[in-house]
Design a protein that fits this description.
single chain; five-stranded antiparallel sheet; alpha+beta; about 600 residues; 20 helices; Beta-Lactamase; Alpha-Beta Plaits; 4 domains
Length: about 600
């Protein structure tokens, strides 16, 4: 150490007063044992008593410089009263008296303290100070404290010898103050080192337990549970979209209120704004369903953030060990999330491969039969294939879109999410047929698909949808796939551009027609039925409804009359007018078949 105390001015008084030497020796011995803050106060109080005795004054106070440069009252001593508490409330450093002591690093005497412009005169009058001697505690050329002495309401003449005595005790006190400061620094450093040592031990133990869990094959929920046990606080795993993926809480803490009202969109926005991709404290946000502060750590895989791991501040504040454990846990959870994602991708690819083989044919039926249970498909049960035609820019990306569509269909129909696959321009779904008669079950499927299209309209742009015939044999699936592709394209051409859902079973022989040119089919229907529609509109007649009823009743006049609630002669008259107005001959079977096709095409185009 290169620091040196200020010189001790005892040479001039060594032979003059054995009392001074004894007092100095007493203080010097006490100074060697100063370590704790209360030791320093005891030493300064001893200095105060001895200085007051040697200088024959009544009052003494000691101030120690703080980090801000001000001097804070440390000890007060008075022969006639206890002033210690009052002194400890005082701060000095802005008055010219103190500034002169600090600047000169030498004793400064004011003989008329109440009127001297260097002092705080109001304070001098309040304390009854007449004359005051200020002595700096100088160490290594710097004033680290000040002692003040005065005679309390009485004048006192300070001799040069008394000033040197006060300065000598000030130098000794400075050494003690410096020693106490160094000891305090060492103590603080020792405490920091001890805290760091204990923190490292706790981190090492947490690392060991996390590593052991990973070697045992712990999954994400088990790892989150372990992290909660290690910290004694609730732990939440958020997905990259802010949804709660997993949660765990120590015994006695209910995790449900921590997440039951969470708002994923608001949580994701808060995390993005306040963490900027790094670990950070997230403040409580009741509006987002987060009632407590959380330390949030991102789960990073390369440059992608796949989620966030959070420890919730419940029971006690977030500690350094909690932060370290979460950071270590985030590494393990990231690996697990990536592993689960890759496994899901592999399983999803296998599911898609199976569905592709089923729809495109070419695979041995026995192989498909054996593979089906691996993907939760019972090929002994009737199924239908749904083709969802998409616009060129469908909105959601493929895998995300298919996952959402499968989830919504499962919710609408019940059961597990169906297998899905993308083909050019469409998504294909394999649906187990609901219970009931085929046509009833198909109607249920159509309503579910219509609801799906309506619900997803803002996220996915559909061109239309078609539901196949019921597939009961493995070869039926490939036939359904081929038929739906042609059917949906033809119905799109026939229609008005709005997404619609058609059932292959409702089109009958029309499926043979729409497999050709949809545009020509619509033109044929309009040419054949157009004259009847125009005649009905101009004359308020009902020729087209009569023709429709006549066909539905198997070309029987009596049955048609009953169905339309009119006289048979009315039906005969209208049939005659149909033959006159249009190219349709109600008595010709081929003409009636053309009319049937035309009406079905027209219904499909305008439904």
């Amino acid at each position: 150490m290169t620091d040196r105390p200020a010189p001790v001015f005892l040479d001039d008084v060594r032979d003059r007063s054995p009392e001074i030497l004894r007092a100095f020796q007493e203080v010097a011995v006490a100074a060697t044992s100063v370590s704790e803050p209360h030791h320093l106060e005891e030493l300064l109080r001893l200095v105060g008593r001895r200085v007051c005795e040697l200088l024959d004054v009544n009052r003494f106070s000691a101030y120690i410089r703080g980090d801000d440069g001000f001097f804070y009252g440390q000890v007060g001593y008075c022969r006639t009263a206890d002033i210690d508490d009052r002194i400890k409330k005082l701060v000095t450093g802005t008055d010219r008296f103190t500034q002169e002591i600090v600047a000169t690093r030498a004793p400064v005497l004011v003989t008329d303290a109440r009127n001297d412009p260097r002092t705080v005169q109001r304070t001098m009058r309040e304390w009854g100070v007449r004359d005051m001697l200020g002595v700096p505690l100088v160490f290594n050329g710097e004033a680290i404290g000040i002692i003040y002495v005065d005679n309390e309401e009485e004048d006192h003449a300070y001799t040069d010898e008394q000033i040197r005595v006060a300065q000598a005790f000030g130098s000794l006190a400075a050494l003690a103050v410096r020693q106490a400061s160094l000891y305090a620094q060492l103590t603080r450093r020792a405490l920091v080192i001890d805290r760091q040592r204990r923190l490292l031990e706790q981190v090492a133990e947490a690392h060991k337990r996390l590593t052991d869990a990973a070697l045992r094959g712990a999954d994400v929920p088990q790892t989150v549970r372990l992290l909660s046990d290690l910290m004694g606080k609730p732990v939440i795993l958020f997905s990259s979209e802010g949804e709660v993926a997993a949660t765990a809480a120590p015994p006695g803490v209910d995790a449900a209120p921590l997440v039951e009202r969470s708002n994923p969109a608001q949580i994701a926005a808060m995390i993005r704004e306040q963490t900027a991709g790094t670990a950070a404290i997230l403040p409580a946000a009741p509006h987002a369903g987060l009632p407590h502060r959380q330390f949030v750590c991102p789960l990073k895989a390369d440059e992608e953030i796949v989620g966030h791991l959070a420890v919730v501040e419940v029971g006690s504040s977030i500690r350094p060990i909690d932060i370290k454990v979460v950071e270590q846990g985030a590494t393990l959870v990231t690996l697990l999330v990536i592993a689960e994602r890759r496994q899901a991708e592999a399983e999803g690819q296998a599911r898609e491969d199976f569905l592709s083989d089923l729809l495109h044919g070419g695979r041995d039926a026995s192989v498909l039969q054996r593979r089906a249970p691996l993907f939760g498909v019972d090929l002994d049960r009737p199924h239908v294939v749904v083709r969802l035609a998409l616009e060129a820019e469908p909105g959601l990306p493929g895998s995300e879109r298919r996952a959402v569509l499968a989830g919504r269909m499962a919710a609408l129909l019940g059961g597990d999410p169906p297998l899905t696959i993308s083909v050019p321009g469409a998504d294909m779904l394999l649906l187990a047929l609901p219970e009931g008669h085929d046509q009833e079950a198909l109607g249920h499927v159509r309503r579910a698909v219509e609801s799906l299209i309506d619900e997803m309209a803002t996220r996915v742009r559909f061109r239309g949808a078609a539901v196949s015939k019921v597939a009961r044999r493995i070869k039926d699936y490939a036939e359904a796939h081929r038929e739906l592709r042609a059917l949906l394209e033809a119905t799109r051409v026939l229609g008005d551009g709005r997404p619609r859902v058609v059932l292959a079973t409702e089109l009958g022989v029309l499926r043979l027609v729409v497999a050709g040119s949809g545009g020509e089919s619509r033109q044929f229907a309009e040419e054949l039925l157009g004259p009847l529609m125009r005649y009905d509109e101009e004359t308020q007649s009902e020729l087209l409804p009569t023709l429709r009823g006549y066909l539905d009743c198997g070309a029987q006049v009596r049955a048609t009359a009953r169905a339309l609630a009119v006289h048979e002669n009315t039906i005969r008259y209208r049939l005659t007018r149909i033959a006159e107005v249009s190219a349709i001959d109600p008595n010709d079977l081929r003409s009636l078949l053309d009319a049937r096709f035309a009406i079905q095409i027209l219904d499909l185009a305008t439904s």
